[in-house]
């Protein structure tokens, strides 16, 4: 018998190294379910579209840069409407929950799930779970209808509320079973998707006809596989406003320094900063430093505290860095500087999403609804190489994206901001080891701190 984790991904191999990392389907554990024609067939808007339905065999490659001899590699199932439905509109009893930290676009995703269920599939029974996972068993539900959600995309946050901690799988699935939910839409970050995976496994263990669909969110791009999260575009736009403000402040003072903290728990890099600041001030008269919240954690006094979800609580690196810079230049260098520290982090994640993120949220939500109506379960709806796909939970939760200071993206950042790499010998050696004999890292291409 398969172990629970084997339930999360179905692997099919094809020719020339083709691998499909497929998501589960309700018929994997409840065979012989009746099917129904997709109501979109008789929807005037869709019935005229040639090839509106996605072919059952369509898949999307994870890697699109290939050589002539490279195996075809890993693929994910393409998202979209299917011909056969496994739920009738009257049968659907859906719920939506939002968990973890805020991110621009949460309300848009909620709105679009409600709209898609109703406008595309005629399914009108949808409830919101109040306040994250614990809301399943500790709070009341929130009624949702197209009318109720009509305007919510213009607001930041989530109308359902959110929380950290409180994930009790058995109590959550008891509540799903007692309330008769058969489609569960779970919007949240890496922790939330881990929670969704165990909810799906427990539902499967109990043999319930319930589709579990995840919609990934991250303000700091720590979720692997997907191109980017909804809200990212909005966050970049809002972060720019803080950076611009820091620049104006810095430019207006002699030896002005603006420090801006942005979200990003997983960051690396150290050494040579003070020397570089001094050089830059001499050349330019002012500078702006953008620091990720997770940077330099090893340099700050250890706190070893966790939030309710088990995430490490971070110290304020922006404040720490600002103090260290001030001390260094006043005590050691006797150089008069004016430093302004801006922390826009919570402002960034609490604003409503911009137009481009709204489009993205809409498509993600529609994909999730198409997937659940077609009987898929245990999947995260995500963009891979610009195409919407269904990704098995284990691929989303197996690791977290980290900032890699030896990759092409970091190199582009360094050249566009004209800053040194701050790589030290040890990090260079480690990077070379990771890249193996094919390493293109040159000793003289780095700035040794
Ligand atoms: N490994 C896990 N298994 C089950 N539930 C989890 C796990 N990690 C986190 N969760 C739950 O997911 C929810 C959100 O997690 P959190 O880390 O706070 O935010 P995010 O999903 O944004 O990363 C919380 O209610 C938490 O209890
Ligand atoms: O104060 P809170 O709510 O714990 O949020 C702080 C954390 O939330 C985030 O914004 C997002 O983290 P999650 O994706 O885990 O929700 C982190 O960047 C940040 O460290
Ligand atoms: Mg997280």
UniProtKB/TrEMBL annotation:
Keyword Ribonucleoprotein part of the UniProt annotation: no
Catalytic activity: beta-D-fructose 6-phosphate + ATP = beta-D-fructose 1,6-bisphosphate + ADP + H(+)
Cofactor (UniProt): Mg(2+)
UniProt xrefs under InterPro entries: ATP_PFK (IPR022953), PFKA (IPR050929), Phosphofructokinase_dom (IPR000023), PKF_sf (IPR035966), PyroP-dep_PFK_TP0108 (IPR012004)
EC assignment: 2.7.1.11
PANTHER family to which the protein is assigned, alphabetical: ATP-DEPENDENT 6-PHOSPHOFRUCTOKINASE 1
UniProt protein name: ATP-dependent 6-phosphofructokinase 3, variant 2
Organism: Salvia divinorum
């Amino acid at each position: 018998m398969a172990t629970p984790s084997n339930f999360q991904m179905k692997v099919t191999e094809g020719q020339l190294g083709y691998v499909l990392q497929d998501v589960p389907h309700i018929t994997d554990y409840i065979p012989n379910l009746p099917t129904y024609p997709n109501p979109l067939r008789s929807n005037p808007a869709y019935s005229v579209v040639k090839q509106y339905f996605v072919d059952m065999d369509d898949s999307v490659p994870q890697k699109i840069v290939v050589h002539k001899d490279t195996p075809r590699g890993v693929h994910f199932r393409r998202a979209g409407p299917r011909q056969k439905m496994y739920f009738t509109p009257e049968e659907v009893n859906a719920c939506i929950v939002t968990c973890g930290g805020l991110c621009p676009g949460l309300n848009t995703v909620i709105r679009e799930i409600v709209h898609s269920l109703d406008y595309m599939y005629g399914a009108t029974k949808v409830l919101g779970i109040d306040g994250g996972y614990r809301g399943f068993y500790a709070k009341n539900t929130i009624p949702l209808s197209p009318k109720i959600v009509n305007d919510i995309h213009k607001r930041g946050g989530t109308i359902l509320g959110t929380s950290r901690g409180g994930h009790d799988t058995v109590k959550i699935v008891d509540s799903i079973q007692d309330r008769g939910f058969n489609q569960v839409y779970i919007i949240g970050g890496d922790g939330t998707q881990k929670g969704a995976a165990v909810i799906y496994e427990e539902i499967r263990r109990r043999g319930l006809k319930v589709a579990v669909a995840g919609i990934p969110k991250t303000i700091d791009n720590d979720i692997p596989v997907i191109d980017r999260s909804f809200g990212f575009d909005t966050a970049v736009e809002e972060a720019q406003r803080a950076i611009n403000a820091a620049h104006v402040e810095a430019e207006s003072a002699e030896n002005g320094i603006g420090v801006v903290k942005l979200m990003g728990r997983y960051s690396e890099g150290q050494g040579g900063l003070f020397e570089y600041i001094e050089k830059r001030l001499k050349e330019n008269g002012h500078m702006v430093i953008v620091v990720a919240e997770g940077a330099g954690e090893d340099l700050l006094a250890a706190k070893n505290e966790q939030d309710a979800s088990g995430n490490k609580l971070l110290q304020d690196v922006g404040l720490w860095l600002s103090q260290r810079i001030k001390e260094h230049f006043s005590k050691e260098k006797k150089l008069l500087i004016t430093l302004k520290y801006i922390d826009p982090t919570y402002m960034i994640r609490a604003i409503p999403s911009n137009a481009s993120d709204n489009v993205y949220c809409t498509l993600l939500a529609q994909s999730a609804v198409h997937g659940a109506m077609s009987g898929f379960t245990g999947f995260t709806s995500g963009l891979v190489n610009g195409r919407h796909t269904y990704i098995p939970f284990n691929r989303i939760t197996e690791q977290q994206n980290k900032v890699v200071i030896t990759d092409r993206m970091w190199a582009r950042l360094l050249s566009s901001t004209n800053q040194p790499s701050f790589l030290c010998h040890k990090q260079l050696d480690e990077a070379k080891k990771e890249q193996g004999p094919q390493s293109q890292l040159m000793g003289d291409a780095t700035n040794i701190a």
